[in-house]
Design brief:
By secondary structure, this protein is mainly alpha-helical. It contains 4 helices and no strands. The longest helix is centred in the middle third of the chain and has 33 residues. The radius of gyration is 23 Å and the shape is rod-shaped.
Length: 91
């Protein structure tokens, strides 16, 4: 007799449809985890190489939750040589 730990979850995968559902759910979970890891890394990469306001805006698109990137973009808006855009810097 085989005994299993209380933490083991056994999913019967005899049916083709169940296998497909488990595969799809696994792939979706992996994609969500990968996106959560990759998006901030891409934002840091783009921020380090940003030389224009547009480049900082693209980096912010990859990680809109990064407060340091928001501050850097706000400072870039304020420091524009021709006609600083204070309204955009406040957002």
């Amino acid at each position: 007799m085989i005994t299993h730990s209380a933490r083991v979850v056994l999913i019967p995968l005899e049916a083709q449809a169940r296998r497909a559902v488990v595969l799809v759910l696994t792939l979706v979970a992996a994609a969500v985890i990968a996106a959560a890891i990759i998006r901030p890394a891409v934002a840091v990469y783009l921020t380090d190489r940003a030389t224009t306001v547009g480049a900082l805006e693209r980096a912010l698109g990859w990680d809109p939750r990064d407060p340091d990137l928001h501050l850097r973009l706000g400072r870039a808006y304020v420091s524009l040589a021709e006609r600083p855009d204070y309204e955009r810097a406040r957002r």
